[in-house]
């Protein structure tokens, strides 16, 4: 129920107005002066305040300024018997939602209340989303308790509170952009822009324009002045992913931005001042790239002031199950399925993989399994065949199978056919050219669901 604080020293008018507002479904609290109103605000949160301008111990216009300073989410509607432009202007400057005259504007009070409540509701929703977004991109969102990932997180937390340039290195799919977001969220630039760009995904000519912007007429199709991401992210954070792919001439321009805080747009001669915090990432060995003449050594020393190496997934095996559970929760919710757990066999199979695609590959595997699973537990049979059979004990009682065993090969082939038919056993038996009863016997023998 929306809450309203009604402040007026005229008891009869206040009581009548409170009754009318209550009938509209609002919860109304009354106060007859500034002192009483401030005490009630300490005890309870109010969505909207209806306040008379002239009060026994103060002025409603001044009071609105104090209230908005301390309770910015609360909307204030000021009521006055004698409206004047100066008070109205000051009330709005102080953050009041509206300023109306008693008597003449009585019909406006209820509609205004509803409008004010709409604004309050919207603001609360925005705050909730910002809180969720902050949580999503915070260090708390980085999953894992292994020594390797914990060490990386601790380093990132220490550098986050500074403005130092950070270089994140590691294999593809290790979560470099997640770390970049977390660093920005923990920095003093948290409420400023965060702009990310993948240097490998854009052609050289377009990348220069994307980074530095361009003047109208600088090239064919440049019909107006355009800001680059450095200018767009002024006072914020820029994340340059795959910086090792940046062409050498653009590396020189980036170095100028980092060392002087100035950039020059394409087709322009006049420098523009910018203040950005750079976080760069690469899966390449930049020292080798320098030796090969593909990366500037002076830029490397400028971006590698603080380097954090993110571990590959096969270096943090103890985190795999926790990551799998996290992805399971997300994908099962999206697929509207109630898959509550992961089988032990499934986890064992995950733990024995090398994961060349790292977390990104694991995420894709879990999503696939969720789509295929029909029970409330992720089972081994929903994994790709190569993961099911990758150099591990098979599930014949008391027997270890390898890829060279006939039984193991048969099991793998049956599973492949079942995957192809999306679990349709009749169709699988037809494709295998065996009786359906024979297929069921083999499914039972090999413990295939």
Pairing-aware structural class of the strands and helices?
Answer: alpha/beta
Strand order, sheet with most strands: 2-1-3-6-7
The termini sit apart by: 52 Å
Strand content: 5-15%
Number of domains: 4
CATH topology of the largest domain: Rossmann fold
Query: What number is the mean pLDDT?
Result: 86
**Poorly predicted runs:** 391-404
The CATH architecture name of the largest domain reads 3-Layer(aba) Sandwich
Tell me the total number of β-strands: 16
The major beta sheet can be summarized as: 5 strands, parallel
The best one-word shape is flat
Work out the helicity level. 40-55%
- Measured on Cα atoms, how large is the radius of gyration? 32 Å
Total of DSSP H or I helical runs spanning 4+ residues: 19
CATH superfamily of the largest domain: P-loop containing nucleotide triphosphate hydrolases
Give the CATH class of the largest domain.
Alpha Beta
